[in-house]
Every structure is written in structure tokens, then in C-alpha cells.
């Protein structure tokens, strides 16, 4: 496991309170038309969601790596990594409720989501628990600043595999919280909404962002 995979996992774990805030409505959608919703539906939903993260991470990581290798833009990857660190600073500020600038990025994603969401809704009501997998795959595209922050990391990963693994690690980090809320367990949600937890999570992400920024600036100065 690389440091980036571990960092992506920790961001997913610490920032998943933001995902949980959106998940209540999704949990309600999954139970539409179900007298007794299957207990495996939240599991299948999250499998689909994490697969969608890994897929887009691989696509973005591979595309940027290919452009960099063809055009010999390796220094551009360092600048992109600086951009990723700045994005993480924005994420830390959002989680700590110090500044909500990340919501502007989420609003930009709403334009694409208007075209994607009908495909997910067409699967409702779920006729079989396994149908929660494609539903989760589509819902993985829900505009989310936390996801976008992790995706900028995949962009500078250097390969398809690394980009996919970063987003897979991120998705696995969000899994405990999302599974618990899918089963109606609210303790972790209450913990993550506490100001103490939010500030600790925000400071942890901020420190990692500054570490990433420092390392990128050092590499940039050595290349000049």
C-alpha cells in the first residue's frame, strides 16, 4: 500500500460524515416498494458506488498520465499535485466548517447530475437486491466535494491502476459510515457530526495537505 492509497483511505474515513448527510435520502429510495427491505441491499449499493469510484479514478489517472507522457509534461503533474493539495485544504476547511467554498465545486457537478440521475431512478423500485449494485454505481456520480477532492489525487497518480486504487481506497474509507447508516445505525453519524470530531478530522486532512504541498514545491524547485 502506497502513502497515497493510505491517505485516500483516511480522507474517506474522516470525511465520510459529509457522505452520510446525503445518504438518508438514498436509504429511503432503496426501500421504495419494499415491505421488508433486504439487509444486503446497503452492501450491494455500496459495492456499486465504490466500483464507480475506482472506474472513474482509473480513467482520470490513465488519461492524465497518457497526456503527460506524450507531451513530456511531467512538470505539469507536479503543478497538478499542488492543485490537489489546495483542494485538500478546501476540503479540510469544509469539514471543519471554517469555509464552505467547496460547495461551489459541488454545484458545478449538479449540471452533469441532472442527466445521470434519471438512469438511477429508472431502477426503482428495486426488483432484486442485486439491482442495488447498478443503482449504487450510478449514485456514485452524485456531486460531492469529498469525491472530487479524492479524484484530483487520481489525476496525478501516474497510471490507470494507481488512479483506480486511490479511488478504491477512498471508497473503502467511506464504507463503515455508509454501511452503518444503511442499516439505520446512527451512533457513528452522531460522532462524526460532533464539533470535536470535525475539527480533529479537518486538522488531520489539513496537515496531510500541507505535507503534500511542501513535497510538491520541493520537487518543483529541484526540477528548475
TrEMBL record:
Keywords, comma-separated and alphabetical: Membrane, Transmembrane, Transmembrane helix
Transmembrane segments: 6-30, 50-70, 82-105, 130-151, 163-188, 200-222
Name of the protein in its database record: Sulfite exporter TauE/SafE family protein
Domain annotation Urease accessory protein UreH-like transmembrane: ranges: 8-210
InterPro entries linked: UreH-like_TM_dom
Organism: Vibrio sinensis
